[in-house]
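Limitations

Structures in this collection are predictions, not experimental determinations, and the ligand pose is part of the prediction. Treat each record accordingly. The example that follows, with flavin mononucleotide as the small molecule, is included so readers can see exactly what is and is not provided: the inputs are given verbatim, and the output is the predicted complex.
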Amino acid sequence: MSTPGTSTRRPAHSIESFFVDRWSPRSLLPEPIAEENLLSLFEATRWAPSSYNNQPWRFLYARRETEAWPLFFNLLVEQNQGWAKNAAVLILVVSNKKFDHNGKDAPTHSFDAGAAWQNLALQAWLKGYVAHGMQGFDYERAQKELEIPDDFKVEAMIALGRQGPKESLPAALQEKEEPNQRRPLSATIAEGKFTSSLVHAEKK
Ligand SMILES: Cc1cc2nc3c(=O)[nH]c(=O)nc-3n(C[C@H](O)[C@H](O)[C@H](O)COP(=O)(O)O)c2cc1C
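Predicted complex:
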């Protein structure tokens, strides 16, 4: 099991260690999360910045072994079900496409929801939990089956839980169960106009 500070990730410039220590394991322990801890993670999302302070993020969730669980779990693609079955909570991130103050389109609703999810992910990591983002689920069915109004966009799902031993994963997933790397900063930033170095940037 990887613990904070022992991963092979090395930042190229000085940053707080939790940014590099956080990663997305798939091996989770099949145990519930205390209500107080879950609320603490959602609390972290409240303090994310957003355009006009509109706070467009919304979170629907299902705790394991509750009535709502199958509704969420059955949305996942088979590959994600294979490991996310052990999550303590499955969370669906939704964002409001309109501003509350004037009903007009909010161009940054997804951007703002992304900031809120990152708050949750980092707070989870700092509390000893894993928050693993997922795109592998049926977006249309989520919108319909969870009765999400048209003004709200389904953004992503999150599997939340305590990290478990790598050995409990199927062999193919065990191979991938380690922190990955990042492309260099030079392929991500440009002072001034867009440059060719930003196109099709290599991953590492
Ligand atoms: C929005 C989003 C969707 C993702 N979808 C999946 C997914 O469906 N299945 C999966 O196993 N991992 C998924 N991931 C995990 C990413 O592959 C992972 O975050 C990325 O490789 C970076 O690794 P790290 O989170 O360990 O730093 C997703 C992550 C995000 C943020």
